[in-house]
Design brief:
Elements lengths: L1 H18 L11 H33 L15 E2 L13 H29 L7 H13 L5 H10 L14 H24 L9 H4 L8 H17 L3 H18 L5 E7 H15 L9 H13 L14 H19 L4 E7 L4 H13 L9 E6 L2 H16 L1 H7 L2 E7 L1 H7 L1 H21 L3 E7 L11 H6 L11 E2 L4 H7 L2 H20 L7 H24 L1 H10 L2 H4 L22 H10 L4 H4 L2 H23 L1 H16 L2 H11 L5 H22 L19 H35 L16 H7 L7 H21 L4
Parallel strand pairs: 1-2, 2-3, 3-4, 4-5, 5-6, 6-7
Helix pairs in contact: 2-3, 2-9, 2-20, 3-6, 3-9, 3-12, 4-6, 6-8, 8-9, 10-12, 10-13, 11-13, 13-14, 14-17, 16-17, 16-24, 17-21, 21-26, 26-27, 26-29, 28-29, 28-30, 30-32, 31-32
């Protein structure tokens, strides 16, 4: 009873602490803050969950008579671009990238230090191989010049948990692990000084500390694998396959940085940097050259060894100089911290010269060919996806480039901007065909291709159940290799705790293995023709409304909280690429997020209903039903549309229109409502469902539930909480906008003249930028945005 009382008091304490904590972020996070938040999932969940999961894979392999996974295998790798993604984010600079890489490496050293100390307790055995004994004697010989007291005092100053005294050769594994511990401590010390900027700018690992710190991951792995080998050869396999094997696998997976940092920048920025170089050299304006001349120039320079600039400093604008400084940082980090950087992703890639330009800029700024990052072109708009196979064919036809990549290429495909550009259905088909054709091109040149899927959390950005998404990919496009983004609230859903992490690993492993071993059948040509027709018609209708109708942008700005989202301080990156309120300038996340908040979800379904109806009216209804029944790609695409419609609520969207939209635009809103009704009707006809989220008895999970049943149950449970938040949000938006239109701000009305209850006055002080009334209303509005997003879960 006493224990129950203590638990209850603890719960009450936590609830009260949460209640009294300001739930609104008052300032935007920095890229460094985002990196720390992302690293926390690795440090607290993923790092320890992965070796346990790999042991489960070993057990599953044992059950079917197969050997365990090899010790040097890496089933999963983790990367990030928090602090590396400078596409439209002015706060991600070269110095920021240097800092987050150092932070990640320091975090890894802290974790490995604890792991090695634990291994020192575990590996107390005296028996080892002769080869290992010779290794131990070499270590002890290096300590002969120091007294026992000196060694003990030095280790005590370092605050080691135990084993301060010199370790005798009767504990051989502890001797080796103690040396690893010392080197990890020195590495931590160096990284901390580097992070504190208490080192000379001319210092680097290779110059001053190469014997005292870990630079390459193999330096840490080699002695641990020697311990493993010695234990196995002396009949102590059970010990070797315990904690020691887990640590070796963790180091194999996470390296010396926990996560590799990808760098991302827009192709136009690279073009302008190269333009500054060619103009300085007096050979013309690079940006005005045609594609053939660009490729000729870039290839000639890459094939030669002559530097373009040498030590010369060119006069470039601020943006071009930052691009060049980023490449200098890349060269520095690949030299000092090998393995800390992953891919260089080029957003808005359109042509082969985009890739060659980045390769030349890397070399020009100090990257050797051996340490040069792999370059991943990102094709994200509809035309770019359609042109991607031709771009890759041009690249692979370039002899220098084909030799340089040594048979491996990564290509990123974007789900977000393609959906914003063409609508979800047209984007889905372009992604499907693009993967097929890029894979064909890679196979033609005998290049192993890894497709990097840039999926967001919501269906409008390519989200949805991961295993279904993988299984619906075109045949022979995965082949055992898959790279995918996990973003936003999906990180929490996938890795919030160990059991969720196990489930995530399971889903990805099973789906990749199944797709690779038993690829889905190639779609019938008639189905492909039907799908191409659907994609074309839906794209035309989507673009006609979104980009050509002059009423759309006005309706969008008034009917959604798009203008207010920028005040949320969700991330470090601005919500718009350029300072104008158009759909083109708006980023995909706020574009999707805005429509999700109003429960209309327009970007996902707009144009699809009309396209389906056209095909149906032409007499192809049974073809559509057969496609839904027997083609995994089409079924998953339609199921995701159905899920989005189930999360939509037209009456709520109508409330936003009634409260917020100018009456002159209500006619336009009525047309959108009719399109929604058409979409709903056609989806039910194609699926043969009586209502949304009804199903047959197929695709049940182990407990006998269909995922659509579970989703429907969850939505029904959340509806009583989400709907009032929508109503409150619409009211707050109306009040805030009215107040701003009338000049009702902190400058015009003193706070003490407002009739606000004292309890609200105290809360309003948390928001110092406006008067008490607007403070309360704006904070309430922001809380409703967060509440609706949490309730709907996959919001963007």
């Amino acid at each position: 009873q006493d224990e129950m009382y203590e638990v209850e008091q603890k719960i009450v304490s936590l609830m009260q602490a949460a209640w009294r904590t300001d739930e609104i972020r008052r300032g935007p996070p920095t890229p460094q803050d985002e990196m720390r938040a992302g690293l926390s999932y690795v440090q607290e969940v993923i790092f320890d969950a992965l070796p346990i999961y790999l042991r489960r894979l070993d057990s599953a392999l044992h059950d079917i008579g197969m050997p365990p996974l090899p010790l040097n295998s890496s089933t999963f790798k983790f990367s990030s671009w928090m602090g590396g993604d400078r596409d439209g984010n002015p706060f991600v600079t070269a110095s920021c990238t240097r800092e987050v890489v150092t932070m990640a490496r320091l975090s890894a050293m802290n974790i490995y230090f604890k792991k090695i100390e634990q291994l020192m307790f575990d590996l107390s055995m005296w028996r080892c191989t002769k080869e290992f004994e010779e290794r131990v004697q070499k270590v002890l010989k290096r300590h002969e010049g120091y007294s026992r007291e000196d060694i003990a005092m030095n280790r005590k100053r370092r605050n080691y948990s135990d084993f301060w005294q010199p370790i005798p050769d009767t504990q051989p594994y502890r001797v080796i692990l103690a040396e690893i511990r010392d080197k990890l401590w020195s590495t931590r010390d160096y990284l901390q000084r580097r992070l504190d900027r208490s080192f000379s700018n001319s210092e680097n690992v290779g110059d001053i500390l190469s014997t005292d710190v870990y630079v390459h991951v193999e330096e840490l792995l080699e002695p641990l694998e020697a311990c493993y080998k010695s234990l196995c050869e002396t009949k102590d396999e059970k010990i070797a396959n315990g904690h020691l094997r887990d640590v070796i696998r963790q180091i194999r997976c996470f390296g010396l940085n926990l996560i590799c940092l990808d760098i991302r920048q827009e192709s136009e920025r690279h073009m302008m940097a190269m333009n500054a170089i060619t103009q300085y050299m007096g050979i013309g304006s690079y940006k005005e050259w045609d594609e053939a001349k660009k490729i000729e120039f870039l290839t000639k320079e890459l094939e030669g060894r002559r530097p373009l600039l040498g030590n010369a400093h060119i006069e470039a604008d601020e943006e071009a100089e930052e691009v060049l400084e980023t490449f200098r940082a890349v060269a520095e980090l690949t030299r000092d911290f090998p393995g800390s950087l992953g891919a260089y992703v080029i957003s808005m890639s359109t042509c082969a010269s985009d890739v060659l330009c980045v390769k030349l800029l890397m070399r020009e700024c100090g990257c050797s060919d051996e340490l040069c990052l792999r370059v991943s072109p990102l094709f994200e708009r509809l035309d770019d996806l359609n042109n991607a196979p031709g771009v890759m064919n041009t690249l692979f036809s370039n002899k220098w480039y084909l030799n340089h990549i040594k048979g491996f290429q990564e290509v990123m495909i974007g789900y977000s901007d393609s959906g914003k550009d063409a609508g979800r259905l047209a984007a889905a088909w372009a992604l499907y065909e693009g993967q097929e054709k890029i894979t064909e091109v890679a196979n033609k040149f005998d290049v192993k291709l890894t497709l990097f899927h840039g999926r967001g959390g919501t269906v409008g950005r390519g989200g949805g159940p991961s295993h279904l998404g993988i299984l619906s990919q075109p045949p022979r496009t995965i082949d055992g290799r898959l790279r995918v983004t996990v973003q936003g609230e999906v990180i929490e859903q996938a890795f919030a705790n160990q059991e969720l992490a196990f489930r995530t690993f399971d889903l990805y492993s099973a789906a990749v293995a199944l797709h690779s071993l038993e690829p889905p059948a190639t779609a019938d040509q008639m189905w492909r023709d039907r799908m191409a027709k659907l994609a074309s018609d839906s794209c035309d209708e989507y673009r006609r409304i979104v980009f050509q109708d002059p009423d759309f942008i006005k309706y969008f700005n008034e009917a959604t909280p798009a203008q207010e989202l920028a005040r949320l301080n969700i991330g470090s990156r601005p919500s718009k690429r350029k300072n104008n309120m158009t759909v083109t300038s708006l980023r995909a996340i706020p574009w999707i997020f805005s429509w999700t908040q109003t429960r209309f979800n327009l970007p996902v379904w707009l144009g699809v209903g009309k396209a389906l109806k056209t095909l149906w009216d032409e007499g192809h209804g049974e073809d559509l039903r057969a496609m839904y029944r027997d083609w995994p790609f089409f079924k998953v695409t339609v199921d995701m549309l159905e899920m989005v419609l189930a999360k939509s609520e037209k009456r709520i969207a109508q409330l936003y229109e009634d409260e917020l939209v100018d009456p002159s635009l209500h006619g336009f809103g009525k047309k959108l409502g009719s399109s929604y009704d058409e979409m709903l009707k056609m989806l039910l006809q194609v699926t043969s469902h009586d209502a949304l989220l009804t199903n047959d008895d197929e695709s049940l999970d182990d407990d006998g539930f269909h995922y659509q049943d579970l989703l429907k149950h969850r939505l029904d449970m959340r509806a009583p909480y989400i709907v009032p938040l929508n109503v409150l949000q619409a009211i707050c938006l109306k009040d805030v906008r009215k107040a701003r239109e009338e000049g009702f701000d902190s400058k015009s009305i003193p706070k003490d003249e407002l009739d606000i209850p004292e309890v609200f006055q105290s809360v309003a002080k948390l928001n110092p930028n406006v008067n008490s009334y607007l403070s309360c209303v704006e904070d309430t509005m922001q809380i409703t945005i967060k509440g609706i997003a949490s309730g709907l879960q996959n919001t963007g």
